[in-house]
Amino acid sequence: MSASLPEEEALESEARSAPLGPLARTFSALRYRDFRLVWFGAFTSTTGTFMQTLAQAWVVYSMTDSALLLGVDAFLSTGPMLLFSLFGGVIADRMERRKIMLASQYLQMAFAFVLALLLWTHTVKIWHIFLLSFLTGSAQSFSGPAYASLLPLLVKPKDVSNAIAMNSMQFNLARVIGPVLGGLALTAWGAAACFALNGVSFLAVIVAYMLIRSPVVRGRGERKGILAEMKQGFAFVIGMRPLLMLTFLAFAGTFLGMPIVTFLPVVAKVIFAAGPKAYTFLLTSYGLGSVMGALFVAYASHAARKGRLALILQVGFAALLVAFAFSRSFRLSLVIAFGAGACIVGVISLYSSLVQLATADHMRGRVMSIFMLAFRGGMPIGNLIAGYIAQRWSISMALAVNGTVLAAIAAAYLIRGTNLDEA
Predict the structure, then answer these.
(1) What pLDDT was estimated at residue 113?
(2) Residue 297: helix, strand or coil by DSSP?
(3) ∠285-248-344 over CA atoms, to 5°?
(4) d(CA 277, CA 133)
(5) What is the rounded CA–CA span in Å between residue 107 and residue 113?
(6) Among candidates 245, 283, 310, 270, which has minimal Cα distance to 390?
């Protein structure tokens, strides 16, 4: 939608204020109208998504009693990022990003309602869940680069890091609230209700995208073929060494770290011989820690040496991952999960901020698609390998090995004194 003021003047008007105190600085990106709309819409929708994630993991594991098939479902939901995200990045730099997001939300809403209907009518098969996971992941792989490259256009450059941290906060706040609501709905009404409520939640983000102004992307230049533009994106990343290192570290973090979330149902059921309530507590504790981590990054968004801080947090996360693997106290595991959530969201938020700040608007879709290919693409591969190790040996072995390798990688960069802020 068009605005009464030119885009830059509108953003300047929204951001103009007296020097900010600590609290206002932490939430500075929320001063912008369009960012607020997207933030609250995304928070509502993401809450619904985590309700479905909790219910779906429990349904898959209950139907199959297999950690490997739980990893397969996680692979199918995030695996399309490996196939389609690069194309999504080119499209994000060619088309209006707001329209891409709307199309994706409509599709994901439809898939959630279909799965709710299958569960409600007791006709669901495991292949239904796998297929719909793949379709949902495919829609997200095209919208992910568009969403990541849209956010910096909704705020002034000085608030980009804060906007990314605030986006992480809404995601992880939803990670806390979603499982709580999902656990209540799962216990009271069954899994079908979780899927249906997720479908309804997409309405909030759809309305938000309809209301925001459509930011102008400058410097696009002459269009080339899709493969040629994709090649430009790779050349840009490869030509900037810090971007290449950030992309690798993001891959390592999710490849080795994210199985802690995927296999929480296995930890709850196998290690603690508990049911969905214990799984919900573990996921909620991890989510609460993630919110605190996002708040910390939002507060520190204007600080120097973000790269070094991210590496320190990554070492901390790896150590907590090893501790979680060997913990046999449920209360201690809750504390460790909290700390792990705080560390990993800080890591990813800081890496993403550094990538965004180093990239021009007209290249951002392609660069973020490469970063997201590494960041989110590491999840399905890591889940498959961790699922195999958990099935072959134990979930403790899978998490301990991952934590040890991740600690070694991050520590090596710290010892060498690598500067990730040079981009």
Answers:
(1) 96
(2) helix
(3) 10
(4) 24
(5) 10
(6) 270
In whole angstroms, what is the distance from residue 44 CA to residue 201 CA? 6
Task: Give how far Cα 286 sits from Cα of 48, 165, 341, 345, 346, Å.
Answer: 17, 17, 5, 10, 13
- The correct CATH number of 29-216+225-416 out of 3.10.20.30, 1.20.1250.20, 3.40.50.11590, 2.60.40.10 is 1.20.1250.20
List alpha helices for 327-360, DSSP H. Answer: 330-357
Dihedral-angle region of residue 218 (phi above 0 means left; psi in -120 to 50 means alpha; beta otherwise):
beta
Does this model's pTM top 0.85? My answer is no
Count the Cβ atoms, other than its own, within 10 Å of residue 270.
Answer: 15
Taking each helix axis as running N to C, give the angle between helix 33-64 and helix 160-188, from 0 to 180 degrees, rounded to the nearest 10: 40
Mean pLDDT by 10 residues, the chain (423 residues): 48 54 74 92 94 89 84 82 82 84 94 94 92 92 85 84 84 81 88 94 95 68 72 82 86 88 85 83 85 81 75 93 92 94 87 80 81 78 84 88 93 83 59
What are the boundaries of each domain within the chain? 29-216+225-416
Residue type, 155: V
**Contact (Cβ atoms closer than 8 angstroms) between residue 147 and residue 16:** no
